[in-house]
From TrEMBL:
It comes from Alteribacillus persepolensis. CDD domains: DHNA_DHNTPE. One of its GO terms (molecular function) is dihydroneopterin aldolase activity. InterPro entries: Dihydroneopterin_aldolase, FolB_dom, GTP-CH-I_C/QueF. This is 7,8-dihydroneopterin aldolase.
Length: 120
C-alpha cells in the first residue's frame, strides 16, 4: 500500500501528569504516516481522491493544541482516531509523538510514543 508522511510537525501543548506541564506547557513533535491506496488520485491527478496535507496538519494541530491529557499515549490515540474518522481513504495511521523536554532528570533527545491504528 501507499503511504503519506507528515514528519516533524511541531506544536505546543499542555499534556503530562505533572501540574506544571498542564500549566506551563511544552513542545511536542509529531510524525504521521497514513496508509492509503493513492493510485486513483495519481491516475486522475485529483486531490479529492487523496489526503490534503494541510487538512491532515490541521487535524493533528487540533488534537495536540486543543486538548489536555495526562498521557502522551492519549495524545497519539486521539490523533489516530481523528485521522481515521476524517479521511476515509486512510486505512491505517501510525502516529509518533515526541516530547523533547519532559520534566525528567537526565540526558536524552526525547521521550515518545508510537502507535498504529487501522480500520476494523
Amino acid at each position: 500500500m501507499d503511504k503519506i508522511y507528515l514528519k516533524g510537525m511541531e506544536f505546543y501543548g499542555y499534556h503530562g501528569v505533572f501540574s506544571e506541564e498542564n500549566t506551563l506547557g511544552q513542545p511536542f513533535i509529531v510524525d504521521l504516516t497514513m496508509k492509503a491506496n493513492l493510485k486513483p488520485a495519481a491516475k486522475d491527478d485529483d486531490l479529492e481522491k487523496s489526503v490534503n496535507y494541510a487538512d491532515a496538519y490541521q487535524a493533528v494541530k487540533k488534537a495536540v493544541e486543543e486538548n489536555t491529557f495526562d498521557l502522551v499515549e492519549t495524545v497519539a490515540e486521539t490523533i489516530a482516531e481523528i485521522i481515521l474518522n476524517t479521511f476515509s481513504i486512510v486505512y491505517e495511521a501510525t502516529v509518533f509523538v515526541k516530547k523533547p523536554t519532559p520534566p525528567i532528570a537526565g540526558h536524552y533527545e526525547y521521550v515518545g510514543i508510537e502507535i498504529t491504528r487501522s480500520r476494523s
